[in-house]
Recover the amino acids of this structure.
């Protein structure tokens, strides 16, 4: 089996699923603040660090 670039092997829905799973884990943290905002439809959020 040859090695292929990640962009060729991961479908967008899987990547979105992993992103949402990561957000769920972050939301359970006492040290993280999550702000959800609509996006341009591409589903890629903007992450901000608040200090």
């Amino acid at each position: 089996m040859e090695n292929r670039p990640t962009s060729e092997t991961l479908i967008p829905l899987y990547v979105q699923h992993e992103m949402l799973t990561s957000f769920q884990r972050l939301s359970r943290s006492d040290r993280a603040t999550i702000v959800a905002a609509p996006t341009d439809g591409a589903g890629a959020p903007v992450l901000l660090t608040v200090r």
Observations:
- Helices lie at 6-9, 12-27.
